[in-house]
Design goal:
Length: 206
Amino acid sequence: MIGPLLDANLHWAAAKARIDPEFFRRLAVQQDPEYLWVGCSDSRVPANEIVGLDPGELFVHRNVANLTPSQDINFLSVLQYAAEVLRVRHVIVCGHYGCGGVRTALSEDRHGLIDHWLQPVRRLADERRGELNRIIDADARVNRLCECNVVRQVELLAANPFIRDAWSRGQSLTVHGWIYSIQDGLVRDLEVSVSGPPGRRARKTP
C-alpha cells in the first residue's frame, strides 16, 4: 500500500506551507547546504531528522555501512559536487551502533554481492582482530568495529583528491566522524575531525 505515503506527503507539504508560506519558494531557487552527510542506508537513521535540519540544509549520501570508497563513482560524484559546487564546509561521516553491514562483515558466512561491498570493513576487522577478540560481548564487538569503521572513512576522506584539492584552494572544509545510537537517538562525536592535510590537523583515534 503506497497510497498512505501520498496522503502523508499532502499533509506534510500543507503543514510546511502553513508554518512558512515562503518555504518551498526558497527551496526551489537555491540549494546551499553547509554540510555533506555520509551515512548508512539503514532506514532507522534519517539524516535530516537526527540533526534537526530542514530540506536544503543537508546534502546526503547514504550506503551500506557508510563507506567512502575511492572506486565508487556514485559516492565520488556526490563528494566532488559537494566540495566543488556546493562548497560545503563540513563533511560528516556518521555510522551507527548495531550496523547490519558491519555485523555482516564480521560474519564468516557468505551473503552474495554485499560481501564484495563490505570487503573494506572485513579488512579493517582483520587489522583490529586482536582488539576485537578481547571483546567478549558480540554486540559490543560490532559496536567497536562500527566506531573503527567511521574513523577509517574519515582517514580515507582526508586523503581523497577532491578533499585535498579543496584544501589546496584554501576552502574551509572539515571532515568529522560521528556515531549514532538508535537506542537513544543521540550522536557521539568520535573526535577525529580533520581540517587540513598532515601537519595542519589535530586528531586522535578513539
